[in-house]
Amino acid sequence: MIARFSLRLVALGYLAVLLVLPVAWIVWSAFGGGVDAVWRSATAPYAVHALLLSVLIAVIAVIANTVFGVVTALMIVRHPFPGVSILNAFVDLPLGLSPVVVGLSLVLVYGATGWLGPWLTAHGITVIFSLPGMILATVFVTLPFVVREVVPVVREVGSEQEEASRTLGATAWQTFWRITLPSIRAGVIYGVVLTMARALGEFGTVIVVAGNIPGVTQTLTMYVEAEFQNFDPRGAYVASLELAVLAILTLVLMNVVRRKGVA
Amino acid sequence: MAALSPAAAVPRRGGVARTDDAAAVVVRGLSAGYLSLIVLLPLAALLWTSTRGGIGAVWQTITIPTVLGALELTVGVSAIVVIINAVFGTLIAWVLVRDSFRGKSAVNALIDLPFALPTIVAGLTLLALYGPSSPVHVNVAYTRMGIALALLFVTLPFVTRAVQPVLIALDRDMEEAAAVLGAGSLAIFRRIVLPNLGPALLAGAGLSFARALGEFGAVTLIAGNNPLRGTQVMSLVIFGDIQGYQFSSAAALSFILLALSLAVLLVFGRLSRALSGHHDR
Amino acid sequence: MAITVQGVSKRFGDFQALDKVSIEVEDGSLTSILGPSGSGKSTLLRVVSGLEHPDQGRVLIFGEDMTHLPPQKRGVGFVFQHYAAFKHMTVWENVAFGLKVRRRPKREIQTKVAELLELVQLGGLAERYPGQLSGGQRQRMGLARALAVEPKVLLLDEPFGALDARVRQELRTWLRRLHDEVHVTTVLVTHDQEEAMEISDCVVVMNHGRIEQSGEPRRLYDHPDSEFVMSFLGYANRIGDSLVRPHDIRIHLQPGADALAATVRRVVFLGFEVRAELEIPEGQTVRVQLTRSQAAELSLAPGQTIYVDLAHSRRFPEEREAAA
Question: Residue-wise pLDDT tens for chain C (324 aa)?
């Protein structure tokens, strides 16, 4: 009994010191100057722009990777072709890479001196240090999530319902929208939530390929870092708070979807 | 009849695929193209740039004292972090599965926080509480301890989430059998529970090791950006090189980091499988 | 007495698993605890082993009060329904486990484990992992593991419950032979009355957390104290308020005193045994068991009218009153 209690105490203590207290302290510090100050920091023009840019990039990444993820997951399970295991391995690759390594590899292709740099410059396209590069970077690091979550669901659902739908005269398109998608919905939503969270929070990869110009190519995570380096901790704390709220929303959503998936 | 055997289902499914062969090929092509443009082409560029000068050049980069120092620091701190994770991750999983107390489900949800919270925010929160203006007078800013703390924060879920389901599924009979045979709680844990958690524990540890090796966002604020402090991990050195347009050096270091984390994943994966291999039912 | 259980009660939430249970198990005997699922038989065994703690009552093993001792210190052997094999250990390591945690000398462990593996006929499989064994082999390993620490009593919780019928039958016979060799006091929990009747010296019938009756198998079968015991130990026809076993019904071709007219509905020949289904006037179906020669003598055929003598039927009036 005493052993069990002390184990619990140690585990909870560790979590408190490492997770709970730091996050609580940030919240406390952010509100230290009153709600007015928080509002002023949150509505500073660069902060607002950074938030909107982060959301824009995240939404694009979610859309791109959801389409890719669902299609690829269906392909991996339903129409495996030689080399599908290689594809599978490559899909997981971004999970094991350092963010700065990802950023660098994008620069090496799409940067001014990169493989495609001269061609892009000649056609007046700027990727690195502008929005397309930031989107590319975010898409790269969030690529695995939807695929990972949807593959096991597709496998579990099986193809009988789809076959039944076809025998009843539905076209492939109708079958996809009416049968396939609804049955894998939980997996897709879970993947989308994970993608969204990672996209909003990505820092290392994006800062490498973005110009980090306030009000232009600065995301909210980059804004946090810049404010802190500029000795405005309140601005950094408030922006962090916004990100933390989004993170907690994500956690709640994850738990809701997980519970629904089980039921 | 052959049609009744389960194997007969395979050619039939192939038949269904053939009806939309053209569409499948197009989809396959688009999917492969997307993956290539976004992931494979950049990684190929990285490999090409880093190995252009031959392995000799990579070796030369490693032997630069500052790089060697960063490499040692990165691997050393990550290793320590993995050991702490293994111990506390298992302990937390144990408490979440075997103990019961009010608010347990909230604690369980909390474990995922580091996955959801942006890494830069993780670093900032730690720095706010345990930095120069710490309200509890603990200052780990610009120290190896601070780096370890940041890495512990972001890698917290890996071991717990790997071990938890195995612990839930673990046959309680085995522990009861051991108890009747005279084994005390510690012996039961060491001889029965731990060996059965082993594969999952190693898998989780491998993931957190790989993550720690490459982590950037969480450590960037805590480590500071001063090479003289001896707190520059590999990702920070690479970032510095990129900022200074030293792409070939950055690529060489990236190659090393990549090889390192691949090796870690491979070794831990192999160990995990070796451990689980013989007692799979 | 090897085991004495005195007034043990155990509750799980709203469920009364054991209700003031008392039993005594004789030294060197093989006793079965028989009952339907939820009757509390497994809980009783777990209370004896120390895996569960009773809310009330005492457990004594060879006169020593064990009620408050953890399982580690009771010196009992326990065999689990689902084997509880240590999956990460070889057969040899599984059997050696109890001796190792007791820090016995290596030499002794070697000899003892080898001896036990021979006893349970697993000599050649010592280096296998449990995952590579059949269910029957795993359970024999479980038995060897439990015996290795030379327990004062051996407790088996539905040891053959997870096995298929044929292996079950084999192991049952084998267990009885083993018991005759080893002579360790053994308590076996089962829901299979045939198993209990076949191998035990004594059977304890449980229902709703209480002991219904205990005694030698033959005595229980012939002189059940309650309707529950009678119907649980074998099929019984209910006619009015009396119960009668299929083989206790005499059939005559002529009407006689106390005989009931019945119509033959179905006759099934099962080798030596012949089963017939009869219909009595109230429309009730009665099952009868005959030998082949008895059936031939009567030349039973469907549609035939015969007369049944229910002289061997039993009534349990006290119980009926208690229920009313």
Answer: 899 999 999 999 999 999 999 999 999 999 999 999 999 999 999 999 999 999 999 999 999 999 999 999 999 999 999 999 998 999 999 999 999 999 999 999 999 999 999 999 999 999 999 999 999 999 999 999 999 999 999 999 999 988 888 889 999 999 999 999 888 999 999 999 999 999 999 999 999 999 999 999 999 998 999 999 999 998 899 888 888 899 998 888 888 877 888 999 999 988 888 999 999 887 788 999 998 888 888 888 888 889 988 888 888 875 544 443
Residue of B nearest to C145 (CA): B181
The class level of CATH for B54-278 reads: mainly alpha
pTM for this entry: 0.84
Please identify, in words, the CATH class of the domain defined by A34-259: mainly alpha
Q: Domain ranges for chain A, please list them.
A: 1-32, 34-259
Interface test with B, best of A5, A101, A149 (most B CBs within 10 A): A101
Coil, strand or helix at C86:
coil
Nearest CA of chain C to the CA of B94: how many Å? 19
**Nearest CB to B181; choose among C87, C88, C98:** C98
Check C80 against B177: CB less than 8 A apart.
yes
Neighbours of B (≥3 Cβ pairs closer than 8 A)?
A: A, C
DSSP state, B51? H
Distance CA B212, CA A98 (A): 9
Mutate to test the interface with C, among B172, B175, B180, B272 (most CBs of C within 10 A): B180
Token pair in block for residue B60 = 């030369």
Pair C192, C35: CB distance under 8 Å: no
**Separation of alpha carbons A20 and A9, rounded Å:** 14
Say whether A116 sits in a helix, a strand or coil.
coil
